[in-house]
Amino acid sequence: MNSLRTDNIPPPRKIETTLEYMHKLFIMPNSSDRFIEFGDLLLDMIHDFFQQKGGIHSEIPLKKLAKIFNNIDIPQNQMLIRDVLQEIKGNIINHSVKVANPYYIGHMTSAIPYFMILLEMIAVSLNQNQVKIESAKASTFVEREFLCWMHRLVYQNPSQFYKKNIQNHRFALGNITSDGTVANMTALALAVAKAFPPDGKRFEGIRNEGLPRSLEYYGYRQALVLVSRRGHYSICKIGSILGIGSKGVVFSPVHPYTNKADIDKLWQTIEKIRKEDKRVGKPSRFLALVGIAGTTETGNIDNLDAMAGVARELNAHYHVDAAWGGGALLMENGRELFTGIDKADSVSLDAHKLLFSPNAMGICLFKNIDDSLKLYHTSNYIIRKGSVDLGRFTLEGPRPFACLKPWAAMKIIGRRGYELIFLHACGLQDIFITLIKNDPQFELLNTPELFIINYRFVPKELREMLDRLMLDPRANAEKITQINNVVNEINVELHKKIRVRDTSFVSRTRLESTRYSPRKIVVLRAITINPNTEPHMLEQILVEHRLLGEQIWQDRNLLRKTLHICNKLIDV
Amino acid sequence: MNSLRTDNIPPPRKIETTLEYMHKLFIMPNSSDRFIEFGDLLLDMIHDFFQQKGGIHSEIPLKKLAKIFNNIDIPQNQMLIRDVLQEIKGNIINHSVKVANPYYIGHMTSAIPYFMILLEMIAVSLNQNQVKIESAKASTFVEREFLCWMHRLVYQNPSQFYKKNIQNHRFALGNITSDGTVANMTALALAVAKAFPPDGKRFEGIRNEGLPRSLEYYGYRQALVLVSRRGHYSICKIGSILGIGSKGVVFSPVHPYTNKADIDKLWQTIEKIRKEDKRVGKPSRFLALVGIAGTTETGNIDNLDAMAGVARELNAHYHVDAAWGGGALLMENGRELFTGIDKADSVSLDAHKLLFSPNAMGICLFKNIDDSLKLYHTSNYIIRKGSVDLGRFTLEGPRPFACLKPWAAMKIIGRRGYELIFLHACGLQDIFITLIKNDPQFELLNTPELFIINYRFVPKELREMLDRLMLDPRANAEKITQINNVVNEINVELHKKIRVRDTSFVSRTRLESTRYSPRKIVVLRAITINPNTEPHMLEQILVEHRLLGEQIWQDRNLLRKTLHICNKLIDV
């Protein structure tokens, strides 16, 4: 039974610390049978966890959790494994977020197939370190095979190319990384290396010389990365890390509604920079243009083909951040959404998103395998020159055998299986859109392509006013802003209430790219990828949100606060 | 039974792809009982794997593995989980490196406690994403508690400090990272941020402005990181990433034998840079000085206290890379080795090394918690300003609940248990050193402190010559070099033979810091941390290496090649 709660964990039993006991804890040729015994116990415990009903986030207040995990000292004495597992059950499992819950549609973390747990057991048992063949034998080859699959999925080169390179250790078709941020960092580090190559004379390339000397040597005033306003926050963070600074990441506007990079405005942005270049008398170097295949806030895909053209004209590395959307390439008729992705010099994908692997694993693919050599590095004691070690190409050092999970998932689910999963997600997306559109108190605020829906609750009265005012948005600008401020407040409040109620979960963000642009609009954000989410659940979720929203609207304070606006607007 | 081999995996059974089948694969409230069934099967399979006798690396040639993992297409159709697990057993598990084998003493990847597998099962089942509280409730607090333990282990602040900050969400005591490289990168990104802060006027700080503008604004000609020649190869890689280039990482000499940074020579290095600064008319900015607490090649610890003094004089961030050695702070009488570590502004540790967690997890601790704010970043849709999200401080985005493993290990093993493990490792180290010293055909080439022993096979005849020649190294320089070249070749060959024989494993590297300095000497590298390695195994390993070495020495070709040297030396 699942009755164990935080407060009735039995006190741990004392045990004597001996080396013999320590020996038994470690994996060895005559491995302990306790492993099987505890394994069985744990399988039951995990099984229980998934069968638990109740809230998504557990009711415990954060303050109480802070008190539970409040021991400032490393435990001196050993505890029995059984006791620690009970403590984990009571204090951690019971108070973890049920991200697999089909009503949890707020983040990209969704349900994972249960076989992922089995695969992780294998990966951790083998404990291979992918950095070098000496500690990762078969797994090195599995990683290359998996990278080949992903490369082919994205770039669709002739089979001859893949036959030649699938296990070609002189290059890398791509890198497996700890997450999408490191995948993007890999791509942009490559862009940097390509922009300032060694010239065979005095200059050894930026990886040796550094950014300031490179700019000087090549005569540039600055190095820039271009991406749309929907670019993932990691791009900015990476800009800081790579030394170009967040100011070196230039965000250009998107089309309202579609959230796709506005190519005209992108050129305007570029022209503005060039104008400044002329004034200063030194050009800027465009390191990379980043296209987005699945914006994390709105699930939209840039016009990847048009972006490729821009990158070419700028002589910039073209990176496509498909961390969110990349997996959807497995949909046979989804490919057209991604037209042009094969023109990207590098593409990043996340396995823990649309490949349904556990947190976290990123992938960075290189169109030209020669590019992998631009990230090449070696060391004396591992990843030696001329070795077959994967670590020669990666930004990271030691890495787990994470790719086992998506590799095996491709076999167990199969391409057709993924197709069904995505068809289900598409279906949910369409249903949710319809439900929102048909409800006068909800407003749809994006044009979803990849399973992310932005919407908000708008009290009927305000909605009607807004619609009327929007017939002449310029004349009514001030009033539109005022009402939206109120609606923003309502939706922040609504999001909090949803969290407290805890029977469903959506996230929230703030977008400048709605029909009210450039006003920043608070939106709720739903992601419909959990295969166990059913249409009737989406209905339930919206009903609940509507009820909560109406309650807030009826709240006197808010009413009073908005009354004078209403009065002023009554004659619109 | 464990008879399944690569070549007799049964052909996969065909199954029909339906959405219903897909549903059943995913975790859900009425989760499938198949999970328990497969879990049991897998526990047995893993148990078998650890009981297998035989070679460490599996005999299969790399070329044959390349042919197994040679399918260039993503599988179209689903396969039964059972069939995929059998394939994994035959093709992957059977051909993985047995890093837990007590005769595998060549890399830092060792045996892990079996309960780590159980903990990983829990972590992956919960599938929390540590980036934000909305997808990581209890686990956010566990991470902070664990970071508090590590911080206290390193910095030993008064308990009042930890009581106040253990769950203080406004700061981070440190970051959990995917590995030590990212931990070091976190530290050096912090160093960069501190070196060029915003000045409240025109300059917004390097994270916004970038490195070139920062140098210009503050009037520096370059930014540098200082580390000894034993610095981990990641420091150089990070130099490239951060934009200072590998030339921005200055390696200063170490003392021969001890492999500790030579402080006098460090100052000489600095003075040389300053002299050049004067010539150029612009100073260099020393971003960081990196002390090493456990060099990865030789297991030595810099004089951390003296290094702290240098960093202070340079006004540089003082980082201690304790990725290898940090865990040894758990030894009560090991602390004196680390004297001065508490003066480091940041310290990195790896959980997958001396905390015996699986691959991979790094930790970066901040002495001054205010420093964590210098890495602070937010985003609209997650890690919002004022939130309690861990992701506000990390270089990475999504992160798994990796800290569960070392956190629980601290409870299950306890500080006393770790002490016993380290005492065992110290004992093995001493025994191995004695065995090498007592064998006329082996030469010890470092002064091990933290479980890493460098040695080489030297045929008796050559050893005697070398010893005589080394009485006057300057006069005999040429001859010493020639003999060492031969011994280097023998040891490269020996290492290959050890790999082929496959009953034991040590790694090899090349060191300039032996008594033959500055000659680069090929050394074998043994790491004695596996709790299941016993003294008699070390004896066996050396006997085997000696036999293999003697075989090589007797090999005619090599003999001929060295004959003329011998002839010339016969009268030494």
UniProtKB/TrEMBL annotation, chains A, B:
The keyword Oxidoreductase does not apply. Gene3D superfamilies: 3.90.1150.170, Aspartate Aminotransferase, domain 1, Type I PLP-dependent aspartate aminotransferase-like (Major domain). GO terms for biological process: amino acid metabolic process; carboxylic acid metabolic process. One of its GO terms (cellular component) is cytoplasm. Its cofactor is pyridoxal 5'-phosphate. GO terms for molecular function: glutamate decarboxylase activity; pyridoxal phosphate binding. Its EC number is 4.1.1.15. InterPro entries: Aromatic_deC, PyrdxlP-dep_de-COase, PyrdxlP-dep_Trfase, PyrdxlP-dep_Trfase_major, PyrdxlP-dep_Trfase_small. The modification N6-(pyridoxal phosphate)lysine is found at K353. PANTHER family: CYSTEINE SULFINIC ACID DECARBOXYLASE (PTHR45677:SF8), GLUTAMATE DECARBOXYLASE-RELATED (PTHR45677). This is Glutamate decarboxylase. It comes from Syntrophus aciditrophicus (strain SB).
